[in-house]
Amino acid sequence: MKPHHGLNTHTNLISNENSDHLYNNHLLHRLHDIQQQLHHIPKQSITDLAEELKLPVSQIEAAIDFYAFFHRSARGRFDIMFSNCTSCGDMTMMQYLCDQLSVMPGETRADGAVSISDASCIGMCDQGPALLINGRTITQLSNQRLDLIAEYIQDSTPLEQWPVEWFEVHDNVRKNGLLLSAPFEPGSGLLAAIKQGAESMLASIDDSGLRGRGGAGFSTGMKWKFCREAVGDAHYVVCNADEGEPGTFKDRILLTSHAHSVFEGMTICGYLIGAQKGYLYLRAEYRYMLPVLQAVLTNRQESNLLGTKILAQQDFNFDIEIIIGAGAYICGEESSLIESMEQKRGVPRVRPPFPVTCGYLGQPTVVNNVETLAAAAHIAVHGSDWFNAHGSDKSAGSKILSISGDCLNPGAYEYAFGVSIQQILDDCGAEDVQAIQVSGPSGTLIGPDEFERKLGFEDLATGGSFMIFGKDCDLLKVIQNFAHFFAHESCGFCTPCRVGTTLLRNGLDKICKGCGTQYDVDEMRRMAALVKRRSHCGLGQTAPNPILDALERFPELFNAKLVHSDYEPHFDLDAALEEARQLTKRDDAEAHL
Ligand SMILES: Cc1cc2nc3c(=O)[nH]c(=O)nc-3n(C[C@H](O)[C@H](O)[C@H](O)COP(=O)(O)O)c2cc1C
Ligand code: SF4
Fold first, then answer.
1. How much distance in Å is there from the Cα of 367 to the middle of ligand 1?
2. For residue 491, what are the domain limits?
3. DSSP labels for 176-231?
């Protein structure tokens, strides 16, 4: 297959850094603005904000400490975050730039010019290595580009004067399917819903067999029906564009190039469930899309596809606002997302009650993935038969995959459900494949003897991430990276996940360092089972998946690293004494354990 790179390219550099000043007064937006202007959130700003927004100081402080994009101590005027994802990250490049600029990873240089740290996957897995600088994305990094970046920073050259092509984000659509190829006329789905009537259209969405594309696969028709029937003062529609699962970037493409269908899906949902308000919760890493998305919203308002008396319907009023997150993977979980919308830390709620009866502000709320809502808009236009004529028995329609890693042509591929893994590998030019992580770190790790398995809720369910690891890849390092990801992203609310993900990470670190024993592997297996069973939400319940899958399918990875003793402590006492040896200028045998 021929790569077609330049297809739909967007630059995320905005001429005036403040021109994308976030337009509603949400706490996270105000904190983003302050962070951008002052490079940290000072105490006085917290007090002022508390007074202005009528929020407790403690709530604002808790939010600042919770979200990765906010800092109480000053970050550099150039604030750089390198993705640490196995697909769009490269930690050797981070170290390279740190060396060039004489700054330690995670720290701010003494002159306040620059800070460099790492961040969880930034959604650029088809065009990495990538970084964020003052919230803007630079992709396709090379050492040569990093040399130039270092020069610009040393010269304090404003970002607007950096080469504009560095900030380009490509769509990289490699295979169009049901959603990506069908042209979408703004308003066509809404007209069909109005013509057909709310109840009948709801039945069509149900008949289509559409299931949630965010991973869990709940029936969309049923979700909308439950919400429509729920009693409340108001109903809400929320589009989940948090897209934080490492390896996933298909929502990025839908929002940049197919935003009308996403917003139309939200508006149709509003019409069917009786909501007047919708929110798009967009991950902060995609903040650069804001002008594009706002332009689409304005266009829809001007075309009477949003606002009051939509398409001349007396009682049909609906509008959409955008809320920008602040770098927390857990906010993709729907109840955390709602907490975050309510200006709090994104800690998952106890469920039930589910959002359909008690969601945003305690009111009935539908939360759907970007792709689900785009699919719903197409179903409204083309009908349920058009949709469920594709796919498999329990998995109607298509799925957009974000393919990254060791293949010739990474990018977005849309397939009817039921496609085999081998077919996908052939299409994207992947050979000598050692393993695939289907649906991101929270999904399933499979090896070559499973490549005839099929994508779909009956077999391999997926939210869209498809990470390919070739024969030369150090798979244990990948698993270690995933363990670090979960330990970092655990919200800390429940003990099994907070402590368990850290212990799993430490155990893997020890094994990867070559200090592990069979005892550590057995302990890790026991801990993984406990974290899975006892955690409060989906993050903890899936965090051990990569370790358990790797232990089952690739035990040799672990065995090859084990030392021969039965037990080796986690804590290396001899290494800890190194500083004392240096201070006393001793390195003789007696100074070692
Ligand atoms: C830790 C965690 C992260 C999640 N991240 C996302 C996400 O980024 N996008 C998404 O649509 N769903 C995500 N989900 C699933 C949502 O909780 C929810 O099921 C989904 O938004 C419902 O939409 P759907 O029915 O259209 O799939 C996540 C779940 C968990 C547990
Ligand atoms: S499982 Fe993890 S992420 Fe979920 S509530 Fe518990 S600590 Fe938070």
1. 8
2. 476-559
3. --HHHHS---TTHHHHHHHHH-HHHHHHHHHHTT-B-TTSS--BHHHHHHHHHHS-
Number of domains in the chain: 4
Query: Can you give the pLDDT at residue 565?
Result: 67
**Both tokens of residue 326?**
């602040």
Instruction: State the pTM of this model.
Output: 0.94
pLDDT in tens, 6-46: 346 666 654 434 445 567 899 999 999 999 999 999 999 99
Q: How far is the CA of 334 from the centre of ligand 1 (A)?
A: 6
Q: What residues does ligand 1 touch, defined as CB less than 6 Å away?
A: 212-216, 218, 240, 242-245, 329-330, 332-334, 367-369, 372, 537-539
Q: Please say if the pLDDT value at position 74 is more than 90.
A: yes
Do 200 and 339 lie in a common domain?
A: yes
How far apart (Å, rounded) are the C-alpha atoms in residues 397 and 208? 8
- Taking CA atoms only, the protein residue closest to ligand 1 atom 28 is 333
CATH number, domain with residue 272: 3.40.50.11540
Residue where a domain stops, chosen among 145, 172, 199:
172
Ligand 2 closest atom vs CA 492: 7
Pocket around ligand 2 at a 6 A CB cut-off: 330, 348, 490-494, 497-498, 535-537, 539-540
Contacts of 30 (CB under 8 A, 6+ apart): 22, 49, 53
Q: Per-residue confidence at 235, pLDDT binned at 50, 70, 90?
A: very high
Same domain? 379 vs 435: no
CA of 332 to the centre of ligand 1 (A): 5
366 and 408 in one domain? no
Which of 412, 438, 473 finishes a domain? 473
The reply to whether 42 and 19 lie within a common domain is yes
